[in-house]
Amino acid sequence: MSQRNLLGGTVVFAVALGLILVGAAVAPYAFQLGGSAPADTENAAKQAFDADELVATPGPESGEVTMDSNAEPKTVLIDVAHENGVSESDMQPLVDALVANGHQVKYLTREDAQRNFNASLRSADAFVVVNPEQPYTGDQLAGLRSFEDAGGRVALVGDPQSAGTTSVLGLITVSVSSGAVGGDAGLTSDYGVSFGSSSLYNMHDYYLNYENVYATPEGETALTEGVDEVVFRDAAPLSVSADSVSPALVSGGETRVESIRKTGPYTVAAQSETVVAIGDADFLAPESAYEADNEVLVGNLADFLVSGDKESGAPAPATPESGGEAGSAPGQGTAPTPA
Amino acid sequence: MVSKPSSAASARTISVLALVAAVLVGAFLAPVVYDAAAPTPDRVAVISVDGTITSYTADQLEEDLHEARENESIKAVVLQVDSPGGSAAASERMYLAVNRTAQEMPVVSSVQGTGASGAYYTMLPSESIYVTPSSVIGSVGVRGSAPYGGTSSEIRTGPDKASMTLDHREAQIETLKHAFVGSVMDHRGDELSLSREEVAYAKVYTGARATQNGYADDIGTLQTAIDRAASEAGLENYEVVEKEPPTRSGIILLSSQNGNSSVVIQESPIGYDGVRAPQFLMVYGQVQYEDEVIGNVSA
């Protein structure tokens, strides 16, 4: 092997090795120049959603709670003696309207009720019961009947009650089997109205949530004068069984009862000459009182409360004989039926 | 003249040595060259969607699907789903990632046990959804805690800084529902025998029922889904690559209460430590944050 051959081989080897090393050194930069695939600038997420079609917007809360009545100053007694599931602030729009129109609003405390329930009623022209959780005594029931017979106004307002609790009016203990039956064998049965224990909902036409149902006037009642549509949150269906009581507000046709899923429409408010029954308490609260025409309904309820002309001295003081057992029988209840 | 035979022999020796060296080097390099030259086998990627959906779950799925889109050898994706859903935002991200992937390659889903709420949202863009008769899917709905009031011990720059009205919270949740239900109708409207309102009831269905009402396409196992994905991609010979499910963090106790699935979340994997921020959930089962029960209905 000549030196020339060896030199030639060495040169070739060095050149090849050099090229490889240079190539290896340059390769990363070459790959970097090539880069990864160009970024996909197409906004696929925006194609999947149209924000304009998605957004739900709360309606305006407007209007004022006003009263049309020019009645003389009356006294409205609000029951907070029976562990009522409502605070004073929850009824502020109603109270404010009454006070602004010269009427007096008092709260029946537990002590008042225990000391002399009938005496408290005697000094009042209207009695408001909202979501009581303690049952009334026989004497109290008798006093309430006498109060109403004498022309006193009674407003019964209640949300759906869960099974095993007291009835919507706290008049008796409820034992609910179907979940849609309110136990109202006490005073409310006397009034010809019973409250359902299961909520209403509407999957087709509702305000922001399926449990916020719309209700519209049924017939012509003073309670719904000027009302086109109200929103009830967590409403209870009412069953009306007396000729003297008329449905006042009815939910939409596709409303259902949550427990039995039976399609409505359902009565959610009813009125007789002396009694108003409303299957929702939330509309009285400041948060809901100005949705839809709720403020008109609140004003009409205030007008109703001061519309009576109660005989003085009623109810008479309770006697052992008059104490009776009224309202103490277990409620049988009736299933709410479509209006 | 005497040296000529010796020179020739030397040249032959060098040639032989060079040949041997070439063979040895060739034997070493040949497999590398072969692998480099051989065509890459087509693959079907199986990606798990497992457990409660959190932002971490979404991170992992987005990463896996991005890799699937970038890797030219992956021709189809199968989602192996066993989840009751979870965070609404994370579920939405996962839906979008699957939706984008489905525009580039076949995506098929296989429900192993539960594919509910946010998990169902995730697999909506799939070409086909396979279930077993006892698997559970559906629950097309959103849930969230009611607003809570701000504390009087702090100063806020606006009335809604730490809270909001019930109306606005309901509107937010309703907006999310519109997106979820709308996506269901967009992707499966042709298959569904249910109306939009019926879908919005947020029911869950067994796999058997789901094949009847259009929530799912057919009864099938994971292998059925893989075969379908490969078929959709036009593959005859393919490999299956599996992506491991993300490690769960801070979760989970599974128990049963009143016959309903119960998910007890510890260390708040969906929320933010130390901050009680409102959460929107797309989850099926009872959810409990520490001692606070947010809700107990399917959604």
UniProtKB/TrEMBL annotation, chain A:
Renumbered residue ranges of the record's region Disordered: 308-339
Protein's recorded name: GATase domain protein
The organism of origin for this protein: Haloferax gibbonsii (strain ATCC 33959 / DSM 4427 / JCM 8863 / NBRC 102184 / NCIMB 2188 / Ma 2.38)
Lineage start: Archaea, Methanobacteriati, Methanobacteriota, Stenosarchaea group, Halobacteria
Automatic annotation (TrEMBL), chain B:
All copies of domain Peptidase S49, residue ranges: 101-146, 168-235
Any GO molecular function: serine-type peptidase activity
Keyword Protease: yes
Keyword Cell membrane annotated: no
Pfam family, one: Peptidase_S49
InterPro entries: ClpP/crotonase-like_dom_sf, Peptidase_S49, S49_SppA_C
Any one biological process term the GO annotation gives: proteolysis
Domain of life (superkingdom): Archaea
Keyword terms, alphabetized: Hydrolase, Protease, Serine protease
Similarity comment: family membership: Belongs to the peptidase S49 family.
Name of the molecule in the record: Proteinase IV-like protein
